[in-house]
Write a structure and sequence with these properties.
- This protein is an all-alpha fold.
- It has a two-stranded antiparallel sheet with strand order 1-2.
Length: 330
């Protein structure tokens, strides 16, 4: 059987390859991608409308009012001030001895709150993680985070009643032959009272975040550590703490960002003229200066100064965290 073959064309007579089309303008496949996603999931995106409106109305639009820090504002006049005064109010508070005393008090209270209130939830979470009796663990959790749901007014009221001259604490001291201590009127006791009440109110709630982070740690890591002969303390140091480090760093950055914004409500409810020496902070000083004395431009200048310091602190903490441990907010 023979097969026929088609002779190849002689050289030089082949058809030229088809010419490539000239490159045209680049397509924009993603140009309508977000529109398609919006049409498909508009119900989910609609949930973000109210939060965005809240931040727009109560966070971003009020920033326009910062202009009165550089303009003379009189009640009943223009909302944005009547006369440009430049840095007059900035120079006023920078040369005011009262402001610098308030600034030092803010640093003290903010620093003590950060030093004591930040690590205690971590320690409490680690201790609860070691509890094997589920009923006891749930009881301690419930008791510890219950104060978080109390109003600041109630917490301050309980604190004042407990530490009053005829309160339970002084009654206990009297049983040991000690004279009643005026905790509320003594300036040297204010920082201890504030930090103690802050620990009592916030420690349990912060523990929940770390307990949730502990559940994400792989159990195989603990098993490998036990095989290597690591004790329970070694497992906590080399497995547990590295596992919750991203959560710790994130919360630390957030706490540093609010370092200067020491709790206004609690300080206002706990302090009195006798404890201004150690209890008066920037937020309460702004309240007395701006609202009670009607010096709105002066108070706006101080508030803008506080906000700039907070921005510098949180940005610096975020950059430092990114470069040292590789974890950051942005």
């Amino acid at each position: 059987m023979s097969t026929s073959t088609t002779p190849a064309p002689p050289p030089g007579t082949q058809d030229p390859p088809p010419a490539r089309a000239a490159p045209g303008p680049a397509r924009r496949p993603a140009a309508t991608g977000w529109r398609r996603a919006l049409r498909r999931d508009w119900q989910l995106y609609s949930l973000a409308v109210l939060p965005l409106l809240f931040f727009l109305v109560f966070r971003y639009l009020p920033m326009i009012g910062n202009v009165i820090a550089f303009r003379r504002f009189e009640p009943g006049g223009s909302v944005l001030g009547d006369q440009w005064v430049g840095l007059r109010y900035v120079r006023m508070f920078l040369t005011d001895p009262t402001f610098w005393q308030v600034f030092r008090n803010t640093l003290w209270l903010g620093g003590l709150t950060l030093v004591f209130c930040f690590p205690i939830p971590i320690v409490l979470a680690l201790l609860l993680n070691e509890v094997r009796r589920r009923a006891l663990k749930r009881f301690v959790q419930s008791v510890s985070y219950l104060p978080h749901f109390l109003s600041v007014v109630i917490v301050a009221g309980i604190t004042l009643q407990m530490l009053a001259t005829d309160g339970p604490v002084n009654h206990v001291l009297g049983w040991f032959g000690h004279e009643p201590v005026r905790f509320i009127q003594e300036p040297e006791w204010f920082r201890t009272i504030y930090v103690g009440s802050e620990i009592w109110q916030t420690a349990g709630w912060g523990t929940i975040l770390y307990l949730a982070a502990l559940t994400t740690i792989d159990e195989d890591l603990y098993e490998a550590a036990r095989i290597d002969g690591a004790s329970r303390w070694r497992q906590i140091w080399h497995v547990t703490l590295p596992g919750i480090r991203p959560t710790m760093i994130t919360l630390l950055i957030l706490n540093i960002g609010t370092f200067m914004a020491v709790g206004f409500e609690k300080v206002l409810l706990l302090y009195n003229p006798l404890t201004y020496q150690t209890g008066d902070v920037i937020s309460t000083y702004l309240y007395r200066t701006g609202v009670e004395s009607n010096s709105f431009s002066y108070a706006a200048a101080i508030g803008l100064f506080e906000a700039v310091i907070g921005l510098v602190l949180i940005t610096s903490a975020n950059q430092l965290s990114r470069r040292t441990v590789g974890t950051s907010l942005w």
